[in-house]
Amino acid sequence: MAAPAANLRINGERLWDSLMEMAQIGPGIAGGNNRQTLTDDDAKGRALFAEWCKAAGMAMGVDTMGTMFATRAGTDADALPVYMGSHLDTQPTGGKYDGVLGVLGALEVVRSMNDAGIKTKHPIVVTNWTNEEGTRFAPAMLASGVFAGMHSQDYAYSRKDAEGKSFGDELARIGWVGDEVVGARKMHAMIELHIEQGPILEAEGRDVGVVTHGQGLWWLQITLTGKDAHTGSTPMAMRVNAGLGMARITERVHQIAMSHQPGAVGAVGHANVYPNSRNVIPGKAVFTVDIRTPDQGKLDAMKAEVTRAAHAVAAELGLGIEIEDVGHFDPVTFDAGLVSVVREAAERLGYSHMDIISGAGHDACWINRVAPTVMIMCPCVDGLSHNEAEEISPEWAAAGTDVMFHTVLDVAGVVA
Ligand code: HGY
Ligand code: MN
Ligand code: MN
Fold first, then answer.
1. For 129-157, what is the HEC assignment?
2. What percent of the chain has a predicted confidence (pLDDT) above 70?
């Protein structure tokens, strides 16, 4: 089949308008979004996406994790579909594009196929994966993880948010428990467009990232138990200070990541001390260590070193300690054949591009275990993400979506 003509492009204005309209739902307090999974705002975003998919002539399916699959028929109903997609849920202080570009970019590809009257052999499916962020209900990429067989649905439904509400109850409350068995769908390929969430593409002056690999990750939730006591009258030698333990472990995480350079990162982003009163020595601290690297050996070593360091700090300070694995996936190598198709599409379209490793985790990282998968990235202003000031340009959004358009046409097979 001849490659799609280089002048075949998506409608960048329509894409940008859709991004801006979706951004109105679940607004943040500083120009970004707070559309956390399974909230009423998530439900509103889902409803708008479903309305747009219907208007684009697609049939909607929903599985029991609430993941949405909008299908555009192919000429061969027996051919496995080509999937595109990402996530509409955001961080509490999230940006307008993290995940959303991948879902609405995929919708724009279908809209552009409709405009051009293009038929494909394989059906095309646009996907909104539930709870990619893992911020309200850990771990991240929860629904795609169940789809890939990495978590049971019971485990997923049992996950609780900070108020003790469960994933299963909240999914039912917003009315998005579908009837499809999770993971029953088989895929010819999965393509995820996503903002880079890092500084490389912008610094290198490239329009498109051809994602060859993804970092591996561990999320270790640590609970330290000490003793509440008066911050004024308790002698220093008598203190059993869980807050101090958390601070020392946080510093050790940073040192361990720095000792594995290049290509390792580590931080503590979620942290609570109890009772969290100005004049009480914290008797309890609960926090999550996030360590990542593309190198399997380093990932295993970092986890072991963080675990050892945490136990050593607890022993030093006489603290009780529990460590729970709340998130994990090993480094990912995406499908080499699809990576070449993405690279050729960027070339054909005349976009500057470079191979890149994804620093963030994505649904594609799990789906890569059950279907040939690839990612396409667009630059971010100052590499900033998971911040309400997250910004991209309409040109970058269009470039990444054009590349996804051509990749899908290559993979799904255009029927004259
Ligand atoms: O944590 C991640 O990398 C993704 O943003 N959920
Ligand atoms: Mn994302
Ligand atoms: Mn994110």
1. CCCCCCCCCCCCCHHHHHHCCCCCHHHHH
2. 99
